[in-house]
Design goal:
By secondary structure, the protein is α+β, with helices and mostly antiparallel strands. It has one domain. Helix content is 33%, strand content 11%. The strands form 3 sheets. Strands 1-2-6-3 form a 4-stranded antiparallel sheet, sandwiched between helices. It has a two-stranded antiparallel sheet with strand order 4-5. A two-stranded antiparallel ribbon has the order 7-8. Strand 4 and strand 5 form a beta hairpin. The longest helix has 20 residues. The chain is globular, with a radius of gyration of 20 Å. The termini are far apart. The site of one iron/sulfur cluster has 14 residues, from helix 6.
C-alpha cells in the first residue's frame, strides 16, 4: 500500500519548505556513483577526507535506515534581497542567519513526527551530516535539477536553498524528475574567481568557498580572495535561475545585524569572547576565530596592494 503523498507535501510546506519531493530508497545509479568516486579519486574534495568514508552507506540509504522505502527531500529557501549589500556581501548568504543544520533539522523533525504519527514506520532526518548524496536524492525526488555550478536549482526558489531529507520505512508513491534543466548560459563558469568549475566537477582546491571555510592553515600563495570573508556566492549571483526570488519566510535565516558592520578590520582586532557572542548559533563558527582572522588579514593585505 502506498501512503498519502499530498499530506507529506503540505507538512513540508508547513515546515517552511519551498519544494518537496519523494524518491524510492535504493541504490544510487551506477553512473552517478562512479562520477562521485572519480571526483574523489581526482582529489577534488581537497582535505575533506570525511567524504571518502561510509561509501557503502552513501551508495545505499537502506544501510542508513534498515528497511528504508522512501527518501522525502525538502528544499528550504534562504534567499533575502539585501544579501549582497555592504559587508553582508563578503559572507556567503547561507551563513547570514542561524546555522541551517539546527534550523532545518528542527523543522524536519516536526515533519518526521507527522509521518510516524500518521503512517507508522521509522524515520531518520539527514541534514548535511549523514552520508547521504542529498543533491542526487533531491533530483531523483523531482525537487530540482543540477546546474553547471554543481548546485541544486529548484524551479521558483533557485539555488539559495538548503536540502534536508527524511529517510523513512514508509512506502510513498515516488515523484518524477522535475523536467527542467540548467539554462546553460555558462555565466557561473565564466565568473568563478578560482576557475573551480571544471568539466570533471567542482574542484574544491580552487573554490573560494572551500578555501575560506574548510581549508585549514594559510591561504595558498597566489590565491586572491576577491573580497570574500567567508564563502563565495558568485556562481549563484550570476545564475538566471536566481532572478526574481522572494525573500525567505524563515526568519531564522534573515541576516543578523552584527554582520552588517563586520569589516575585515574589526575581525582582525576581535577577541574570542566577541567572536563567540556574535557567532552564537551561526554556521560561521566553523572557521573558528583563527580562520576568520586569517581571511580578514588576507583581505587587508589585498587592499594594500
Ligand atoms: S563558490 Fe565561488 S569559487 Fe566556488 S565554484 Fe562558486 S564561484 Fe567558484
Ligand atoms: S549560471 Fe547559467 S550555466 Fe550556470 S547554473 Fe546558472 S543557468 Fe546553468
Amino acid at each position: 500500500m502506498r501512503a498519502d503523498v499530498p499530506a507529506v507535501r503540505q507538512w513540508a510546506a508547513d515546515a517552511g519548505g519551498a519544494a518537496c519531493g519523494i524518491a524510492r530508497a535504493g541504490f544510487v545509479d551506477d553512473a552517478e556513483f562512479a562520477y562521485f568516486e572519480k571526483w574523489l579519486e581526482r582529489g577534488m574534495h581537497a582535505t575533506m577526507r570525511y567524504m571518502e568514508n561510509y561509501r557503502e552507506i552513501r551508495r545505499n540509504p537502506q544501510l542508513l535506515l534498515p528497511g528504508a522505502q522512501s527518501v522525502i527531500v525538502v528544499a528550504f529557501p534562504y534567499y533575502h534581497s539585501g544579501q549582497n549589500d555592504g559587508n553582508l556581501g563578503r559572507i556567503a548568504a547561507y551563513a547570514h542567519g542561524d546555522d541551517y543544520h539546527d534550523v532545518v533539522r528542527g523543522r524536519l523533525e516536526q515533519l518526521a513526527v507527522r509521518v510516524r504519527d500518521n503512517f507508522g514506520g521509522e524515520t531518520r532526518v539527514c541534514v548535511d551530516t549523514a552520508p547521504l548524496l542529498e543533491r542526487y536524492w533531491a533530483v531523483r525526488a523531482g525537487v530540482g535539477f543540477v546546474g553547471r555550478n554543481r548546485l541544486l536549482i529548484v524551479p521558483g526558489a533557485g539555488s539559495y536553498v538548503f536540502i534536508g531529507s527524511v529517510v523513512t520505512t514508509v512506502a510513498f508513491e515516488p515523484d518524477s524528475p522535475c523536467g527542467m534543466e540548467c539554462a546553460g548560459c555558462l555565466r557561473c563558469i565564466a565568473s568563478c574567481p578560482g576557475g573551480a568549475l571544471t568539466a570533471e566537477g567542482l574542484d574544491a582546491r580552487r573554490c573560494l568557498s572551500y578555501l575560506t571555510i574548510e581549508h585549514r592553515g594559510d591561504i595558498p600563495e597566489g590565491v586572491d580572495l576577491c573580497g570574500r570573508l567567508y564563502g563565495c556566492d558568485m556562481c549563484q549571483r550570476v545564475c538566471p535561475h536566481n532572478r526574481s526570488l522572494s525573500d525567505t519566510p524563515i526568519t531564522e535565516f534573515h541576516p543578523r545585524e552584527a554582520l552588517r558592520t563586520l569589516t575585515p578590520e574589526k575581525i582582525a582586532a576581535m577577541n574570542q569572547q566577541e567572536f563567540s557572542a556574535i557567532m552564537r548559533r551561526s554556521a560561521i563558527k566553523r572557521t573558528k576565530l583563527a580562520g576568520l582572522q586569517r581571511n580578514a588579514l588576507c583581505l587587508l593585505r589585498e587592499d594594500d596592494k
